[in-house]
Amino acid sequence: MICALDSASRLPDADRREATARLVMRLFAYHYECNSFYRRRCEDAGVDPRTVMSRGLAAIPLLPVGLFKQSNAHLLLSRPLEEVELEIRSTGTGGVPSVARRDTKTTTAVALALMAQYREFFSISGGAGLFLCPSPAENPEMGLAKVFNLFCGLLDRSHYALHGYSVREDEAVEFLVHEQGSTVRHVFGPPFLVNRLLDYLVKSGSELKLGEGSLVVTLGGWKRYTGATIDERRFREKAARRLGIEQANIRDMYGLIESDMLAIECEHHHKHVPPWCHVSVRDIFDPSREVPDGTRGVIAVSSGLNTSYPAFILTEDVGVRREGGCECGRRGQMISFSRRLKGAEVGCCAVNIEREIDTVSAWARDVAIEPGSPPRRPASPAR
Amino acid sequence: MARFSDEIVEHFTHPKNVGELPEPDADASVVDPVCGGQVHLTVRMGDGRICEARFVAYGCAAALGTASIVAEWVVGMGPEDLASLDEAAVTQRVGGLAPGQSHCARLAMEVLHALADDLRTGKGSE
Ligand SMILES: [Zn+2]
């Protein structure tokens, strides 16, 4: 399915549903067998593999995403720690990191899945990439950094314009200008950081001409740590004008580190759920109840790739699911994110990055550090 | 070396002394600004030495395992013992850390030193 994503994304609905259900049900039976913590939750809910076979994927007991923040997260593992190869985290405004631990098999599957999606949606096989996000060298466990960095393997040249939470807009522009005429240029980063570059261009009265084939790819959400929201439509208009790029090539992605799902926007700005995941939208007040397509509710994502832990996750995000065909030719589930659940902490990595950037700039101003030179923050705040 | 030492695997899988002591004689919290790892230690003293310790930790598996090991390790120590511990001592005690996990030794050392400070200046030294 991963290697033939183009055809899997165009299967008739019944065939695709059956293929996804087979993957997810097989993993449900596996986690039910191997994970005593999860099995107890299933028993409490009166669900076993036979129930899921007869009642469908909606019967699978979900794990609230908050469990990944708890200090007894070892309970979530279906494999021994010795088999865990990759730990990825996301830290929101609350400061407590959520950590997803993947074994070798799952790490391989997810890495290949992401690459397959990047090829399917972006067809990148070269060019230059400007990264407006932390590099994995500085933040090796940060989910957002890892997901963006996978693009580097497809590109010929990459440049990170964020150093120690200090943004270098001048350096970013210089990189894009320097690569002009030599290769296709792409920009990657969370919306608020790309927006920051756009504001820098507005302020300096400049417009770049990235041209045909160039992409702006965003991930991390549109909510800022201040509570304000970046308007997606206005962002696209501004990016199209300031970067000289088609709006169809300005694409957002939605995912969370605990799930194995990255929903990527096609040129029509619909976020497509990959066929190895199943999205179900739940009643906000009763998450055991699935709501019909087109109705707003809490997003739940079930993975058909994860052997490390039961990746049947009830998120804290509110959104809408639709199923069927898209103008781009793909068929399947599509989701749109509306907002965070009331009471959930604001956003994830991106929100925290923005707050860190502001803290670092304020600190640099206070100690009169040359703007742009990466300041070293004082060590851990102890109580 | 393996990704996790046997000690880390044991303490991550079966964490010991988890929680917070009510009305502790001293406590310390540290946060790693890079990885987001957090450790909170609370201890009770008897005859100038730690006789009971509890921990709460968040972060990667090595940080959680290290915190559990540390909470067991500190029992019997006084503030001077805690202050003398460095990253190398922590690394040795946890059975070694893979290159990407060295921040866990720093986090543990910082919480131990913060605890020593709290014992010297706070309720623990009374
Ligand atoms: Zn589409």
Give the helices and strands, then pairings.
The complex is a heterodimer of chains A (383) and B (126).
Chain A: H1 5-8, H2 13-34, H3 36-45, H4 49-55, E1 63-64, E2 84-91, E3 97-103, H5 104-122, E4 128-131, H6 143-149, E5 157-160, E6 162-163, E7 166-167, H7 169-178, E8 185-189, H8 191-203, E9 216-219, H9 232-243, E10 250-255, E11 262-265, E12 271-272, E13 277-282, E14 297-303, E15 312-325, E16 331-340, H10 349-366
Helix pairs in contact in A: 2-3, 8-9
Chain B: H1 6-13, E1 26-31, E2 38-46, E3 49-58, H2 61-73, H3 79-84, H4 87-93, H5 102-121
Antiparallel strand pairs in B: 1-2, 2-3
Helix pairs in contact in B: 1-2, 2-5, 4-5
Written overview of the protein:
Chain A folds into two domains: 5-103 and 257-340, ANL, N-terminal domain (Rossmann fold); 110-254, Rossmann fold (3-Layer(aba) Sandwich). Chain A is of the alpha/beta class. In chain A, α8 (191-203) links the parallel β8 and β9 (216-219). Chain A is built from ten helices and 16 strands. Chain B has 126 residues and is of the alpha+beta class. Chain B has five helices and three strands; from the N terminus they run αβββαααα. A three-stranded antiparallel beta sheet of chain B has the order 1-2-3, covered by helices on one side. In chain B, α1 packs across α2 (61-73), α2 packs parallel to α5 and α4 crosses α5 (102-121). The chains are: A alpha/beta (383), B alpha+beta (126). Chains A and B meet through β2 and β3 of A and α1, β1, β3 and α5 of B. The structure holds zinc ion.
